């Protein structure tokens, strides 16, 4: 009995085992690949060394030089591909990996400006805030840093106090300083630094400084700038400062007390006389009847010896007017067919010297008469050459002027060889100061270059020296100011790109 039971139990177990094996199945694992490319969105250029992450699975690869990446042995299914690179936003795409296909995905990276922190606000280094007595040439210096260590560029704006537009602007600076020059004396300046890291721009505060007081100018002169005349002052050491900025202003003449400057300006459209302080401040129009003649740049005028009036030409009349604009009167009337061009007034005998022209610039007469217009006499005549306006010597016994030594004429009024002349009013002797003079049987050189013109001469306050303009006879060359001894010797260049000088 026991043997039969054992056999039956064994058979039952075997049958159960066979039944379990017959119901169990294992599916094979299916694999594929995921690949793609990472490019910059701005220009579609490949991104090298971008980090690409595949999720799920957290597998990570880097792009090659072509911006390509690849994940092999990827189990079929749905995945997220994430691309990132420092300084750029993270880009994400989803892919479906299936058997027999290799998903290809392109991800475009854009600048992640939200992660770029702005530079620090510029901090003042020099000059000190609200400092005074600064030089007219100085270095503006500041400091700014960038938390992302981006390269910084700066724009600097410089204003005169009260001006709406910058006097100067400096853009694209990579250094944290800039040298400014040509500043005016006794002037307050405002300046601001704007810093950029290429993403963010930060405006700095507005700082100010003031330049020092005006120096004691030795000379004033005119300079042509962008088709206009502007007035300048200069020291004996060569420091130059601009005095006027608007419209066109020329022929500066200093008052007898050396404290004010009178000049011609076209501010009122018609040419009028103005006066101002030595620093260009307190500008006031004096005349109501305009100064006028054949050529605007050829006109000249003068102060009365006591500094209370201006004497000036207006076509066929010579007027005097007080510097406050009152008391206009006619001093002299030109003879028929002639026009006044320029004048000078000496306290020695209270006399006036003046030049008239005919219908053209080449017809010239110089005359001398009393301050009331009486006792006029002609002292020099040239009917076929350009002549400049006369000025008295300190003693009042001589006239100094320029005149062309040739009789050349054209429609533009050109001169070929204008020289400086001194006329002795007592003897009538005329001396050419631009010509080499003979001293002790030797020739003393004046250095006047052939093909140039000497123009607009004036005496120094002591009478020991001359100041004048020299320029090429083409009429379009640069004009420079020279000095020389009273006899024309020892000529020296004083100021470049300058004309119509006056020796204060």
Determine the CATH topology of the largest domain: Neuraminidase
Please tell me the total number of domains. 3
Estimated helix fraction: under 10%
- Our Rg estimate from Cα atoms comes to 44 Å
Which superfamily, in CATH terms, is the homologous superfamily of the largest domain? Answer: TolB, C-terminal domain
Biggest sheet strand order reads 9-15-14-11-12
Number of helices: 1
- The CATH class of the largest domain is identified as Mainly Beta
Outline the biggest β-sheet: 5 strands, mixed
How would the global form be characterised? elongated
User: Care to count the β-strands?
Assistant: 41
Describe it.
The chain is mainly beta. It folds into 3 domains: 31-111, Carboxypeptidase-like, regulatory domain (Immunoglobulin-like, Sandwich); 123-210, Immunoglobulins (Immunoglobulin-like), CATH 2.60.40; 217-503, 6 Propeller (Neuraminidase). 4% of the residues lie in helices and 50% in strands. The strands form 11 sheets. Strands 9-15-14-11-12 form a 5-stranded mixed β-sheet, with no helix packed on it.
Give the SSE layout.
Blueprint: H1 2-21, E1 31-40, E2 51-55, E3 59-62, E4 68-75, E5 77-85, E6 88-97, E7 104-109, E8 123-126, E9 131-134, E10 138-143, E11 153-160, E12 168-173, E13 177-180, E14 188-196, E15 201-211, E16 219-225, E17 228-234, E18 240-242, E19 249-254, E20 260-268, E21 270-277, E22 284-285, E23 302-303, E24 309-314, E25 317-322, E26 329-333, E27 339-346, E28 351-357, E29 364-370, E30 377-382, E31 391-392, E32 398-404, E33 418-424, E34 430-432, E35 437-439, E36 442-444, E37 452-459, E38 465-472, E39 479-485, E40 492-495, E41 499-503
Parallel strand pairs: 1-7, 9-15
Antiparallel strand pairs: 1-4, 2-3, 2-5, 5-6, 8-10, 10-13, 11-12, 11-14, 14-15, 16-17, 16-41, 17-18, 19-20, 20-21, 21-22, 23-24, 24-25, 25-26, 27-28, 28-29, 29-30, 31-32, 32-33, 33-34, 35-36, 37-38, 38-39, 39-40
């Amino acid at each position: 009995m026991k043997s039969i039971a054992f056999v039956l139990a064994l058979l039952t177990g075997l049958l159960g085992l066979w039944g379990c094996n017959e119901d169990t199945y294992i599916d094979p694992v299916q694999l594929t690949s995921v690949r793609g490319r990472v490019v910059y969105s701005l220009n579609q250029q490949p991104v090298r060394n971008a980090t690409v992450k595949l999720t799920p699975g957290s597998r990570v690869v880097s792009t090659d030089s072509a911006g390509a990446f690849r994940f092999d042995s990827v189990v079929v299914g749905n995945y997220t591909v994430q691309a990132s690179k420092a300084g750029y936003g993270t880009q994400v795409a989803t892919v479906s990996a299936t058997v027999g296909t290799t998903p290809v995905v392109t991800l475009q990276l854009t600048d992640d400006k939200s992660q770029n922190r702005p530079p620090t606000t510029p901090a003042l280094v020099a000059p000190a805030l609200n400092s005074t007595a600064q030089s007219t040439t100085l270095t503006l210096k500041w400091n700014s840093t960038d938390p992302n260590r981006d390269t910084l560029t700066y724009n600097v704006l410089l204003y005169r106090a009260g001006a709406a537009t910058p006097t100067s602007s400096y853009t694209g600076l990579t250094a944290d300083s800039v040298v400014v020059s040509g500043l005016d004396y006794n002037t307050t300046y405002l300046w601001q630094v704007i810093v950029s890291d290429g993403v963010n721009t930060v405006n700095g505060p507005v700082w100010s400084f003031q330049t020092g007081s005006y120096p004691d100018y030795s000379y004033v002169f005119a300079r042509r700038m962008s088709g206009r005349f502007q007035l300048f002052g200069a020291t004996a050491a060569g420091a130059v400062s601009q005095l006027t900025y608007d419209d066109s202003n020329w022929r500066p003449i200093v008052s007898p007390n050396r404290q004010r400057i009178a000049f011609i300006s076209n501010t009122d459209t018609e040419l009028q006389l103005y006066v101002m302080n030595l620093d260009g401040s307190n500008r006031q129009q004096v005349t109501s009847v305009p100064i006028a003649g054949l050529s605007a740049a050829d006109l000249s005028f003068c102060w009365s010896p006591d500094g209370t009036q201006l004497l000036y030409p207006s076509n066929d009349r010579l007027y005097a007017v007080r510097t406050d604009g009152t008391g206009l009167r006619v001093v002299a009337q030109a003879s028929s067919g002639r026009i006044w061009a320029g004048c000078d007034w000496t306290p020695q005998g209270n006399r006036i010297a003046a030049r008239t022209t005919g219908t053209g610039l080449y017809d010239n007469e110089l005359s001398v008469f009393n301050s009331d217009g009486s006792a006029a006499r002609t002292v020099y005549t040239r009917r076929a050459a350009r002549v400049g306006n006369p000025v008295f010597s300190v003693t009042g016994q001589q006239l100094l002027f320029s005149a062309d030594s040739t009789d050349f004429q054209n429609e533009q009024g050109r001169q070929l060889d204008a020289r400086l002349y001194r006329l002795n009013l007592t003897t009538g002797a005329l001396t050419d100061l631009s010509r080499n003079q003979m001293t002790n049987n030797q020739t003393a050189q004046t250095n006047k270059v052939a093909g140039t013109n000497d123009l607009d001469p004036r005496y120094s306050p002591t009478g020991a020296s001359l100041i004048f303009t020299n320029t090429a006879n083409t009429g379009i060359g640069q004009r420079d100011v020279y000095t020389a001894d009273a006899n024309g010797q020892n000529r020296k260049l004083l100021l470049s790109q300058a004309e119509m000088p006056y020796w204060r």
